[in-house]
Amino acid sequence: MKKIIIPVFISLFLAGCVREITPSDAIDTNTLVQTKEGLTNAVNGAYALFKDHVPFNGTSDDNLMYLRQYFQLADFASDDIVCGQMTTDPFMNSFSLNHSPAQTNTRYFWYISYKIINDANTVIEAAAKNANPDASIKQLIGECYFLRAFAHFNLVRFFAKPYTIDPTAPGVIIRTSTSEPSLKARATVKQVYDAVVADAEKAASLMEQPRGVQYASKEAAWALLSRAYLYMADHPKTIEYSDKVINSGRFVLTTAATYPALFANAQTGTETIFCIAFTALEDYGKFGSIASMIYSDGNSGWGEEFASQSLRDTMSSQPGDVRSSYIVPSKDGGGVVQKKNGIEMYYISKFSFQGNSPTLSSPIMFRLAEMYLNRAEAKAKSNNVAGALADVDSIRNKRGLSGALYSGVLPAGKTVLEVVLKERRVELAFEGHRVFDVYRNKLPLNRTYWGYHLPGLSETDINLSQQPAGYANMVIPYTSNRIIYYLPVDEVKTNTLCTQND
Question: Among 10, 160, 230, 247, which is least packed, fewest CB within 10 Å?
Answer without folding.
Answer: 247
